Description:
Blueprint (H helix, E strand, L loop, with lengths): L1 H12 L9 E7 L10 H6 L5 E5 L7 H6 L2 H6 L5 E5 L15 H17 L3 E5 L20 H14 L3 E2 L1 H17 L5 E4 L2 E6 L6 H18 L25 E3 L10 H7 L8 E5 L2 E4 L2 E3 L6 E5 L5 E5 L17 E5 L5 E3 L2 E4 L8 E5 L4 E4 L2 E3 L5 E3 L3 E5 L2 E11 L2 E5 L2 E13 L9 E4 L2 E4 L21 E2 L2 E2 L5 E5 L2 E2 L21 E5 L16 E2 L2 H5 L3 H5 L13
Parallel strand pairs: 1-2, 1-3, 3-4, 4-5, 8-9, 9-12, 10-13, 11-14, 12-15, 13-16, 14-17, 15-18, 16-19, 17-20, 18-21, 19-22, 20-22, 21-23, 22-24, 23-25, 24-26, 24-27, 24-28, 25-29, 26-30, 29-31, 31-32
Antiparallel strand pairs: 6-7
Amino acid sequence: MKKIALFALLLTLAGFSSLADKIKIVLVGDSTVTDNAGWGLGFKQFLTEGAVCTNVSQGGRSSESFRREGRWTNALALKADYYLIQFGHNNEPGKPGRSTDMPTFVSNMVSYVAEARAGGAKPVLVTPLTRRQWDREHPGKIKSSLAPYAAEVRKIAAEKHVPLVDLQARSIELCESLGPEKCLEFSPPKVVDGTNTGGFDGTHLNARGHVLFARLVVNELRQACPELAPVLRAEPADANPVAKESKYDAVVSADGSGTHTTVSAAIAAAPDNSAKPFTVLIKPGKYEGQIIVPAGKRHLRLIGEETENTILTYGLNVQETNAATDRRFKGTGVIVLADDFHAENLTFENTSGDHGQALALRSDGDRETLKHCHLLGWQDTLMVNNGRLYFTNCYIEGRVDFIYGSATAVFDHCEIHSKNGGHITAANTPPNQEYGFVFMGCKLTGDPAPWVNPTNTTLATPAKTPFADLGRPWRPYASVTYLNCEMGDHIKPAGWNNWRNPTNELTARFAEFNSTGPGANPEARVKWARQLTSDEAGRLTVENILRGSDGWKPGQPAK
């Protein structure tokens, strides 16, 4: 490992500055290591062009939960030369889903060391940044609750011959030298769901603290890993770096390191009837409960950091309720009543399961877009009730009528996943509305079917029976079209369902063009559905379908 690092360093000093030539450093830890609430952003300012740093630390994570969520596996996949690893804050008691006993903490830290080495990297252990906990019996002194964790990390470093950055000791020294009043300068205000409580956060760091505490890490690192000294600056490239989170109007983080701890509180902070976007960054985590975007919160943008790990979850169906449920929207997780809503990198889920209608998302606004989102449920996962919507590169799953409603909606290169049969769509398109649901370049997938054709009992592996259809008309003039979609073998040859009402066949507007895959079977489709001509399909563009009277184009402001 040392030879590789030194070779990369020599290349850098000789003028080879490609990314492959640079020393790769990855920061792993909790919120006190992150760019927006810890020393991570400041650390990057001390690196020369001979090194590159990736910060994968995540607020609210302990040594255990960081591993459990697969974050350490993802960090190892970066193939770094050095991993700086700091945990302890969230291992402390009283943190559900995160706290551990001390033996588990030690075991995890030992595993980090062994696994980093197994991947050819050099681990560096960092003791946890102190909490500013002032000792009442000894004024001006800190009595850190994290001292036992720091002691164990020091012991591991000594036993495993791992470089150590003793940030706990150095940060206590610094804070005590400054005193309680001066420490308030780098302590963020204590905010509860957007409201300043008048107190100060004694754990995290504001912009004034990023470089101040990173300098402690860098000074220790020079001693612990002297081979890194040539890529560590004496002074930061930027003494006042700005975290990327600052570009957002609000930041939601369950661990308190953002401006709000709940999504609803961040939405409430958005101005009413704004003509400008209000953008909310949602940090990874599970945010439980019903969320409503009121009609007055126009131009709201909810941006998740990681689709799979940033989850807006709800667990009730329409027959269930609790004290926090708005009775107008029983069984619905997220309700969007405002126009010009945008969601990105989020998972919307309803976990009620096979217990009737249970919506992950209901949309009642106009000009709404969802990008790189997952929508998970069983029956009625997604209700597009009104207006115009654009979904791109989304994953939507369910069983019964799991995409339904009266809106005009385009699904552009999305994956539509059927769970154990049922019907994909249930459109309620008004008769005077030209377009309903249009699927463009989508991939239709299905669960491995447990059902088999009973007539094939003599076969060692009986043939699967297709079990899902493309849709059924919730109301007579339902409009659904599939363009250039790949269809799995779970799609029934007939393709469509008349909802046990033959008169629907006279009015429903169901069509396909250029379907491919084992589920594409134009000859076997019901006779009352259409196969479009090339000219007809060519007129079905995103712009033509969604422009309306205001000329809306997804991704651009409304006129």
